[in-house]
Amino acid sequence: MNTTRRGFLAAAAASPALNAAQNPPGDRIRLAMIGAGGRGRDHFNEVRRANENAQIVAVCDVWKVNREAMAANVEKAFGAAPRQTTRYQEVLAMKDVDAVLIATPDMTHPKILADAVAAGKDVYVEKPFAVDFADAKMAYLAVKKSKQVVQVGTQRRSDPGMMGVAKAIQSGAIGKVTRVSMEYHFQEPRWRRDHHMVKAEDVDWEAFQFGGRIKGPFDARKLREWQLFRETTNGISGLWLCHLIDLAAWYLNDPYPRHVVTLGGVYLWKDGRETSDVYQTMVEYKDCLVTFAMSLTNSAGGRNLWFGAKGTIDAEALKISGDGSRDPDRVMQAAPIEKVAGVESHMANFLRCVRSRQTPRASVEAGFSHAVAGCMAATALETGRRVGFDPVKLELV
To answer: Where are the alpha helices (DSSP H) in the chain?
Structure first.
């Protein structure tokens, strides 16, 4: 049963005043889900698998269908019905919530994150960290001023294979890396979903509008297909580039691009979407040029190639070789890259850090880094101009 606004806040105020910053090792970590859609369901499953003595005690979602379905799953899994609400601010007012899991539309991530750390909550926030640069900077500075643990959902940082590639590149196995080529292709109208079953009375449309950022009356398509509209995302720059460009900052140990240029548009799926179905960006780091391409018009698959002076790494196939190198010290024999053993999941890493107060694998610095690249790429696409970044002033140029 949904709690009334007054009753909900009264119940929250009456709860024990214990937050994650005071959470001693061994105590159960009390989590609230903000967003109960596809990624929210993944969070739920990851918490269950993490075996870190954590319990979900509240579920927030603007759509009744998702919220109640998740609440039922939580009750079945943890033996107690979670509190439900459509307003994330009510979750942050709950004194017995130690940490929140944010899996809401892209443009809402920075504001909810900043409000959460201000309320003393630790946070697992989905990628992208932000789709608007001003929001990214605001959230980054808010987290840096806080004492909260923040894990950004770029899960490749917890992938044993990707960790193996990082080890190989950073140890100099292929020498100086000067070029990277990343591509992912699907032949489908990605992010298009059925929305005809969504009833206006089941949606807190005002909450979804997020302080007026989403304009107009109730629109079921915007709720279900928010990945297609500029009000809620910056398109492939946030939806997919963030996954891969995070590897560049990580592997190259270079947090911010120097310059970015981007082209793209809607070339096939002319269904009213405002975000590209074909896209390519060039991201320049110090002495290294990274290209990323994606299309929804051909199912050619993916590639993730790192070109060094001594050889090449295929990060998709986890293979190192001397291909393309004439260096006398080049990689002489092609070989698989070893996965790092004994790696805990991204969620387990977050929960463990909530207890230990250590820095998670995908820190706020990592999140801000991929947001800078993504916002540069989106701005370059929108303006048709090359975009730079000032790392001292933390401003796009």
So the answer is: 5-14, 38-50, 64-78, 88-92, 109-118, 133-145, 160-170, 205-209, 220-224, 236-239, 241-252, 346-356, 364-383
Q: Is 373 among the domain residues?
A: yes
Nearest CA-CA partner of 101 in 85, 82, 83, 88: 88
Domain boundary among 93, 125, 157: 157
Of 91, 202, 80, 122, the closest CA to residue 71 belongs to 80
Residue 319: which CATH number? 3.30.360.10
Q: What is the pTM of this model?
A: 0.92
Q: SS3 for 145?
A: helix
Instruction: Using only the alpha carbons of the chain, give its radius of gyration.
Output: 22
Q: Determine, yes or no, domain membership for 356.
A: no
Count of structural domains within the chain: 2
Nearest to 248 by CA among 264, 233, 260, 231: 260
CA dist 117 and 121 (Å) reads: 5
Spatial contact of 376 and 137, defined as CB atoms under 8 Å apart: no
So what's the pLDDT on residue 5? 41
| Nearest-angstrom CA–CA distance, 6 and 68 | 20
| Helix spans in 60-182 (H) | 64-78, 88-92, 109-118, 133-145, 160-170
Q: What pLDDT, on a 0 to 100 scale, did the predictor assign at position 60? A: 98
First and final C-alpha spacing in the chain: 50
Which tens digit of pLDDT belongs to each residue from 256-304? 999 999 999 999 999 999 999 999 999 999 999 999 999 999 999 999 9
Angle between helix 133-145 and helix 109-118 axes, rounded to 10 deg: 20
Q: Are residues 62 and 112 in the same domain?
A: yes
The DSSP secondary-structure symbol of 27 reads S
User: In the chain, helix, strand, coil percent, each to 5?
Assistant: 40, 25, 40
